[in-house]
Amino acid sequence: MGKNQTEQTAWSVLSVLGICLLSAPAWAQLPGGSSSTTGNAANANSGPGTATGSSAVAGAQQNLYTASGQNGAQPTQDSFKGSIVSGKATAETIELSLDEAIQRGLRQNLGLILQSASEKSAGGQRLEELQPLLPTVTAAASIEVQQINLAAYGLKFPGLNPIIGPFQVVDFRAYLTQNLINVSALENYLAAKHNFAAAKLTAEDARDLVVLTVGNAYLLCIADQARIEAVQAELATSKISLDQAVAAHDAGTSPKLDVLRARVDYQNEEQSLISTKNSFEKDKLALARAIGLPLDQKFNLSDKVPFASLDHVDPQVAFEQALKARKDLAAYAEQVKSADMEKKSAWAYQLPVASFSGDFGDMGTTPGHSHGTYTATGQISVPILQIAKTKGQEQVADAQYEQARAKLADQIQQVNQDIRNSLLDIEAATKLVEATHSNVELANQALSDAQQRFRAGVSDNLPVSQAQTQTEQANDQYISALYQHNVAKLALARALGIAQTNYKDYLGGK
After folding, report:
1. What's the CA gap between 501 and 211, in Å, rounded?
2. What sign does the dihedral 316-319-324-330 (CA atoms) show?
3. CATH pick for 34-507 out of 3.40.50.620, 1.20.1600.10, 3.40.50.150, 3.10.180.10
4. Closest Cα partner for 81 from 281, 295, 290?
5. Domain positions in the chain
6. pTM, whole model, 2 decimals?
7. How far apart are CA 193 and CA 69, in angstroms?
8. For residue range 91-148, what is the model confidence (pLDDT) as tens digits?
9. Hey, which bits of 42-106 come out as E strands?
């Protein structure tokens, strides 16, 4: 190989490396390190608009668990991402709207099903605590055959055979027990009743969590679709730039470096398109999991949630509204009442308990040779010396009561913070949407100007490559800002306790 050929080969290799190094800083500026998949909202660390949405969903889910009481199978944070699949996949591709997805989630979401089971368990415990206050009736039937040796008991009578029997006794009997006064049992029942009310309210609150989880998953898929469309447009633009570079090189007006640079840009766009489509399919699977749709069922998203600004919301007014609407706050309040009843029950263990018991039946050697018998007993029992036990129960119950009150007070402030956080996120996202939309227009204009200059032979295609990278970044940031804005509005609806009934008012139309 000659000296000139060696220099040309070395120059070509260095040129390709230079293109990659020039492009790397632009990629690094984008979260995630990829030109088009960088702002992928499917990943919690993948974009400035993503962290807000994912943290809002995770935080709202986390707040549910401590309000769900101590009964039954409790949902976990990941359970709201799962579901019970209903039906089988069909060959046709179905059109899935946001409303249909949410309604499916409200029927099939695993977190809601588990919380409903918890509610059922709390209802069962309430009935168990009610039984000590109700009459208890049992029945029994027996037949007994005996032979008695009086001599074994030291009983001997002249002329009397000490062996008596065998003989039989037939007994049909019903037994009744009833607590007449039992303050502790009454307080336990009232505590279980409040626990059941708390479980019901928590199950209602879980429906808002399903709306938030499914809505977020649907918005992720919409964002992915927008990214695919953006990358496809960017790929078409890169193809035009590559064709121009090849044509200019063939005409002898442009060096091969321009062709290499344009080809690298084009191949990067191809890779980005593959990655973006993969993220879209994975997010669709996550959406299907949350709403109980078979994973092999093909579906399209029929709703396109546009940008719709939200009217000014006063934080204090919104907080007062949430205090009335949030079911989890009502559930915490019921838990406080339950803890108070348990505290009273612990003290009431030292009070007398008045009860009645009795039985009535028919007894004889045979059913035809029998007679009615009965017993009736009234009883009052009073604890005399169990100071340590009573004092310990009172301290445990008092500690649980203080914990319940503290959790309620903290949750009230958490709701206030959630509302204010959502309002701040909405305000910031609104400004981001405006700024990034303007940035997209400027980047497109800069790309058009750079292409015209290259076509006219005024400059090489390095400005075109840089402008394409800036356009990709601007499109991705705009899509992330739209996603962030919609999720923030959905999180506000959940913070107000009206996500299930008013989510359409916050997300807008098609």
Report:
1. 9
2. negative
3. 1.20.1600.10
4. 290
5. 34-507
6. 0.78
7. 12
8. 999 999 999 999 999 999 999 999 999 999 999 999 999 999 999 999 999 999 988 8
9. 94-96
